[in-house]
Specification:
Elements lengths: L7 H6 L7 E3 L19 H7 L4 E5 L5 H15 L11 H14 L4 H4 L2 E5 L1
Parallel strand pairs: 1-2
Antiparallel strand pairs: 2-3
Helix pairs in contact: 3-4
């Protein structure tokens, strides 16, 4: 972040107003720090603990073009019939994005980098 690192304590202490969904496209957002491997808290979990109903994050580094394809396909499928974003569609939207990667013969380790937690 511009004024310093984003800390999990800052996220949890934030006063979000009806947080529905977060897509964390940065690398390693669903893994803890290597100095504390037994800790289960990570950036995506912190977002959920602070009130977000649905969070998508990454487990390791992802190719920029793959991330762009996932995000594009994901958001195309997150919109409901009335044209509004619906966080309850997040798991299905991610599944459809991954299926598209599979059809395009993207390497397996890049297909499975993103995970969904929550609703």
């Amino acid at each position: 972040m511009r004024d310093g690192p984003l800390m999990i304590k800052d996220i949890i202490r934030s006063n979000w107003q009806n947080p529905e969904f977060a897509f964390l496209s940065a690398c390693h957002t669903t893994v803890g720090h290597k100095k504390s491997p037994d800790e289960s808290i990570h950036l995506a979990a912190a977002m959920q603990f602070s009130g977000f109903r649905s969070v998508v994050g990454s487990m390791w580094s992802v190719d920029d073009e793959v991330a762009q394809e996932v995000v594009s396909t994901f958001y195309d499928n997150l919109v409901n019939k009335s044209g509004k974003l619906d966080c309850t569609r997040a798991a299905v939207a991610l599944h459809k994005a991954v299926k598209k990667l599979r059809r395009n013969n993207v390497p397996l380790e890049q297909q499975i980098v993103f995970v969904h937690i929550g609703v």
